[in-house]
Design the sequence.
């Protein structure tokens, strides 16, 4: 059951949505965060942060004939994504938000995830994995 509630400036629900008796999940996503109901009420699920390291392999780069657009990389939200930049070495990223000309999320530095953002025109190609 969905309703339109007001949200605070910090991306948290000011009034959590009301769920039906048989529902465990509320698919109301704000700032890409899901909420679930437990014995104490609504708790925020940490859907924005990657739960583990990226895959241990480096994928083979394919040929990209298209421009990198917000709609193309938005298919990789909350998925491990390998980025090949125009300049520099490739890296694993866990994108959480896509804007008009920027993607933000977490970048793997070899042993932990660091918050990171880059412009779309600096990406040569990318590949997503679950």
Sequence:
């Amino acid at each position: 059951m969905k309703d339109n509630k007001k949200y605070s400036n910090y991306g948290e629900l000011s009034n959590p949505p009301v769920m039906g008796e048989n529902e465990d999940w509320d698919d109301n996503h704000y700032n890409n965060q899901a909420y679930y109901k437990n014995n104490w009420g609504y708790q925020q699920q940490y859907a924005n942060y990657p739960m583990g390291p990226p895959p241990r392999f480096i994928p083979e780069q394919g040929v990209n004939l298209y421009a990198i657009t917000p709609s193309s990389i938005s298919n990789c939200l909350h998925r491990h994504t390998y980025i090949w930049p125009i300049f520099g070495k490739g890296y694993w990223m866990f994108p959480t938000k896509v804007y008009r000309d920027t993607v933000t999320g977490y970048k793997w530095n070899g042993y932990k995830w660091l918050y990171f953002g880059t412009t779309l025109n600096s990406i040569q190609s990318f590949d997503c994995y679950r």
Remarks:
- The longest strand covers residues 91-98.
- The domain at 70-129 is CATH 2.30.30.100 (SH3 type barrels.).
